[in-house]
Structure prediction request, 224 residues.
Amino acid sequence: MTRAAKPSSRQRRTPVVSPEPRELPTTPRGIRTRAKLVDAARTVFERDGFLDARLIDITNEAGISAGSFYTYFDSKEEIFAAVLASVEEEMLHPHVRALTAGDDPVELIRAANRAYLESYRRNAAFMRLLLQVSSIDEEFAQLRRRRGEAFAQRNARSIQDLQERGVAKAKVDPYKAASALSGMVGRAAYAAFIIGEEWDFEELVETLTQLWANSLLISTGDAT
Prediction:
């Protein structure tokens, strides 16, 4: 009987999230060390790509002993997920209301679009890498889908609030509308910062804002 060949290290799958998620460190030293590893991992992943990145390169970049890695992470996949979580935290919570002078819905949409596009531009190298990894790894594809759902759910709540206040006149399902509009903004960010379309940034912000507001039939005048 011919013995089946062992899968290569690139073919073997390691769970991205363990059944019992590891607790985050609580000591100042542990928090600093984990943060160093995550920052170093991002540098290595963006420089070498996910498949070619090695754990020894990450620990060297962080200036930490190789054995210390396993105090905080079990695998390359797990630390990649930690990098993704740190990027998501920035992009999902831009504190938009603090960026505007009032509650004008169009200004809030404009501020949200600007914050997202600026964040995407800052994180373009990692976003490009995430697209590549998601295309070859189903677990990360699922993480990406959950990321999209989180954006859509947040925006759906905003759309529903505008509808209930009579500001947004469009009779559309808030979640479906949020998914479509968020997809539009995400695709525009991909075109601008990954593909390299030479679009003026301010014009892009204004175009997306107008399309978003017009599609929801947001009232102008006294309501805005």
DSSP finds nine helices and no strands in the chain. The radius of gyration is 21 Å.
